[in-house]
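wait is this the right file?? whatever heres the structure
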């Protein structure tokens, strides 16, 4: 039964670890001149993710209301 799951149950743990590693790298960049470029990239990435996910979420919400 559990043979086909693979690393799926470890996804929350691994994502938390990787987010702490990314936070550590961003904190080191805080005093660097590259900070502005990195933050622009992070913000654009988050905005593109929200832009791609928002229509699907709004459609599901509207379908469930009726």
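ok assuming it is, sequence goes like this
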């Amino acid at each position: 039964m559990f043979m086909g799951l693979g690393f799926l149950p470890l996804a929350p743990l691994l994502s938390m670890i990787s987010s702490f590693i990314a936070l550590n790298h961003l904190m080191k960049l805080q005093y660097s001149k590259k900070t502005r470029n990195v933050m622009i990239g992070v913000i654009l990435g988050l905005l593109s993710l929200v832009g791609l996910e928002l229509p699907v979420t709004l459609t599901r919400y509207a379908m469930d209301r009726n």
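The longest helix spans residues 35-65. so i think its the right one actually
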